[in-house]
Design a protein that fits this description.
about 240 residues; three-stranded antiparallel β-sheet; mainly alpha
C-alpha cells in the first residue's frame, strides 16, 4: 500500500530522529499505526503495529543483552538480567519514545487520542518496540544494534544507573566477580553541628583504600565512596587495581 502524501512529514521526522533512512518506509508507517486507528479507519493503513511490537521486544532483548555482555564482562547472569530489566521496561522505553517525539507522529483512533493515548507509557513503549522492529526488518540486526546502542547511550553511561542509582550494589557485584572480595567501608571522621553533620567514609578493597566519600549520613557517604570507586575501577578492568599478593 502506498503511503498517503500527508504521512510523509511524519515518516521523515522519525527517520531524522533515528538518523536512519528506510528503504521500505511503509514499515515505519505501520510501526507508527495504533490498532485504534485501524478500527476506526479500516483500509487507510497497511496494518497496525502489534506484530511489530512483538518482534521489537525480542530484538531489544537480544540487542541490549549483547551490549551488556560486552560492556560488563565481569557481571554474572543475575546482575545482567537486572540491568537489562532496568533498561527494557515500559518507563524507559516510553522515555526514549518521547525523546524521539514518536507520540507526535503516531496514528491513533479519535477515542484513544482523546483519552491521552499519545502520552501513555504503555502506548509509547509499544510504539518504540515497533519502530525498532521496523528498523530490524529494513536493515538487519547489525545496523539495528548500532541504533539501539545510540538511543540507549545515556542509560548505558554507568553501571550505577542500571542498578537503580545504587552504586553500592554495583560495586559489590563488581568486586565479587572480579576480585572475589567485598568492599570495606570505614568511618574516618564526622564533623559539623548535630543537625547538620558531615560524614567521611573510606572505602577499601583488600586493605587498599580506593576512594573516600562524604555525605550528610553514613549511608550517603558510603554511596558517594562507592560511586567514586566505580569510576576508578570501571574504565580499565584489571589495570587500576591489583590485588595484594
Amino acid at each position: 500500500m502506498n503511503i498517503p502524501e500527508h504521512r510523509w512529514p511524519d515518516i521523515r521526522a522519525v527517520e531524522t530522529a533515528l538518523a536512519y533512512r528506510f528503504t521500505t518506509p511503509s514499515l515505519l508507517d505501520q510501526a507508527l499505526t495504533h490498532r485504534s486507528f485501524i478500527h476506526e479507519s479500516p483500509g487507510e493503513a497497511v496494518g497496525d503495529n502489534e506484530r511489530l511490537e512483538f518482534l521489537g521486544d525480542a530484538v531489544l532483548d537480544l540487542g541490549i543483552s549483547s551490549i551488556l555482555m560486552k560492556k560488563f564482562p565481569d557481571y554474572q547472569e543475575g546482575s545482567l538480567t537486572k540491568l537489562r530489566s532496568s533498561l527494557v521496561n515500559d518507563r524507559s522505553l516510553a522515555r526514549l519514545a518521547q525523546r524521539l517525539d514518536l507520540g507526535d507522529h503516531l496514528r491513533l483512533g479519535k477515542g484513544e487520542d482523546g483519552s491521552g493515548g499519545r502520552k501513555k507509557n504503555s502506548v509509547l513503549a509499544n510504539i518504540f518496540e515497533a519502530v525498532i522492529a521496523a528498523v530490524y526488518l529494513d536493515a538487519g540486526f547489525d545496523r539495528t544494534l548500532e541504533i539501539i546502542e545510540s538511543l540507549f547511550s545515556t542509560l548505558l553511561a554507568s553501571g550505577e544507573d542500571f542498578l537503580g542509582g545504587d552504586p553500592k550494589s554495583a560495586l559489590q557485584e563488581l568486586c565479587r566477580s572480579r576480585f572475589n572480595l567485598a568492599p570495606c567501608y570505614t568511618l574516618l571522621d564526622q564533623y559539623g553541628p548535630d543537625h547538620e553533620k558531615t560524614y567521611l567514609i573510606s572505602l577499601s578493597i583488600d586493605e587498599r583504600q580506593v576512594a573516600q566519600g562524604t555525605g550528610r549520613s553514613k549511608k550517603e557517604a558510603e554511596q558517594d565512596a562507592a560511586r567514586l570507586a566505580l569510576e576508578e575501577l570501571s574504565p580499565s578492568p584489571g589495570e587500576t587495581f591489583c590485588r595484594t599478593p
